[in-house]
Amino acid sequence: MLIAITSPGDAAGATTTAFAMALTWPDRVLLAECSPAGGKIMRGYFRYQAPPAGGLWELALAAVHGQAATAEALWDQTIALDTARQRLLLPGLSDPFSSSELSAGTWDTLAATFADLPVTVLADTGPIGPEQPFAVLRAADLVLLVMRPTLAQVVAARPRLARLRKALGAGAPLGLCLIGDRPYTPRDIRAALGEFALTLTFPVDERAAEILSDGGGSDWARRRIEVSPLMRAASAAGQAAANFAAGQRRRIFVPRRAVREERR
After folding, report:
1. pLDDT for residue 47
2. Which of 90, 151, 222, 258 has its CA 20 to 30 A from that of 251?
């Protein structure tokens, strides 16, 4: 199962949201930093440490040899977010300029690999834009647009969302994830941007968000983050997103299997 996470830009909070969901996901999960602008978690939450593995860049090199080679190389490029290795991170590019060296074919292979893994993949694809890996978005069982319910974010989202909907095609599984409920409500945002298949909401929790995005906070606060409003909301949102994406996948694959059996 593949869930892609994007935003209209302007520090909407997409990476922090994706990270919080990964840390509270109900099953085994891989958070893949696929933004062309580069990864943020190692230099944020992990306080500017270099990843112990090559991450997305090394995986992209393996993708040149096909999907089988990519799937085999993937696990060596991840780092564990917990002792049981149920939550894994694929660090993003350390040099954003290297994104220009990733071809469309490379992203196609990466997207197919993510979609076929036996674990859920949360792919942080960065803000909607011309350099975004649309192959990953098209392969996703659910695409989540993370934004704040402000006029500036709505104005930024409107043309970008129109481009995204066109790229994904009619009936694409597109969800909305709002950070906060002011000054506009979810109903207001849907009225401005169109309907979404799923709507999730997160509270504004600056203390927990600072820990996840910048590695800030005291040691006590970092140990207590799992009971924060942000993490409680992430747990509920993750369960809702997982249920929706699983249902979406069943609708896609069950009819195909039925057609194959009928042809026999």
Report:
1. 84
2. 90
